[in-house]
Design brief:
single chain, alpha+beta, Pantoate--beta-alanine Ligase, Chain: A,domain 2, three-stranded antiparallel sheet, 2 helices
Amino acid sequence: MTKPRHSSVGRADPPSRPTQPARRRRGASERGSATLEAVILTPALLLFAALLVFAGRTALARQAVDHAAWQAAREASLARTAADARTSASAQAAALLARLGCRPAVAVDTAGFSAPVTQPADVTVAVACTIDVGQLALPGVPGTITFHATADSPLDRYRSRG
């Protein structure tokens, strides 16, 4: 008797694999989504960057105008006469704000110069400066912004006032 070539005795049938539907390539339905995200996010990021530039520029301008008012008041308080105080305060404010590209409007209150010696007195300087922000081209942002600052500085009590 010859042996059967394939004996099924003692052997289990090989496990059959369940048939699976053919898989689509991963991400095929998401093709172009990165481009779409970039198209949507790029203008938003550019607008955010422009707003940061605008905020930084206005903050620096505000600080510069405050500093110019303080320095102009200090310069005016060192002057001997009211006329010299007006001249020196205007020159000081103009020099400090020249790099911002504005011509400041300077008002100097020199009433303290008419107070008698030994009486406390001060000089007040108000500075206004208009900054051009139109080149930023942001929606809702005006072309110019005007900043105002006021500062006082005491006059020396024991120095003659003209």
